[in-house]
Amino acid sequence: QRFAAMSGVRAVTLSHSSLLRAGRSHPVRVDGVVARDTRFMQTGPAFFSTMQIPMLQGREIDERDAAGSVPVVVVSEQFARTFMAGQNPIGRHITVGGGVGPLRELDLEIIGVAATAKYGPLKNTIPPVVYVSYPHLPPSQLQQMTFALRTDGDPLRHAATIRQIVNSADSRVPVTNVVTQAADINRMINQEIVMARLGTAFAVLALV
Q1: Are 45 and 62 in contact (CB under 8 A)?
Q2: Which of 10, 26, 145, 187 is most buried, judging by how many CB atoms fall within 10 Å of its CB?
Q3: Cβ of 39: how many Cβ atoms within 10 Å?
Q4: 193, 186 contact by CB (below 8 A)
Q5: pLDDT exceeds 70 at position 102
C-alpha cells in the first residue's frame, strides 16, 4: 500500500520471484492425476494487471483472496490447454503440494486463466504455470518477496524511497537486486549481446 501511494507509481504487486528468475516446482494434480512439468508461482493482488499479462477467463487474484478465504489459483492458458482441454477451468479444483515436498497439500479453486507468459530463463521452453495467492500458503513458504512497481518515467528514481519504506517496516529485511525488467533481461542474455556486437564489429571491419 505504501509503494502504491508513491508519486509516479501506477501499479504494484509482489511474487516470490520475478518471472524470469522463477523456477519453483511443487506437485500439482488435476482430478488426481499429476500435471507433470508444471511450475508454481506465489503472487499477490494485481499481479497480472501490473505485469500486463491479459486475463483470458475469470479474474485475477485480488484483495478479497485474503487469509481465511477460499484458497484460489490462477492457471496459465498453457496449463488449461494441456490438462483441461475442451473444458471450462473456472470453478474446478486442483491440488498443489504434498508428497515429499515442504508444502502441505492445498486444495485450490481456479478463478482465472491468464495468457501464457515467459517463465524462467529466456532460453527455456515455457512450462504450464499455476499462480497461488500468498495468504493461502504456510509461513514457512514466505522466505522472500519480489515487489514489482510499474511507474511513469525512470523506475530507478524510486529506489531510495523503496529502501526507506522497507527499512521503516522492518530494518532487518535487506533490499537487494533493485533493477528494471529491461536490465534484468539484458543481464540474462548478456553473452548473446556481446557475441552480436562482436559479430557486428567483425562484419564492419570486413566491409571496410
Answers
A1: yes
A2: 26
A3: 20
A4: yes
A5: no
Mean pLDDT calculated for residue range 55-84: 93
The per-residue pLDDT for range 87-100, each reduced to its tens digit, is 999 999 999 876 55
Q: Is there a contact between 74 and 57 (Cβ–Cβ < 8 Å)? A: no
Report how far residue 127's alpha carbon sits from residue 164's, in angstroms, rounded to the nearest whole number: 37
User: Which residues neighbour 85 within 8 Å (Cβ) at sequence distance 6 or greater?
Assistant: none
Read off the C-alpha cell for 145: 518477496
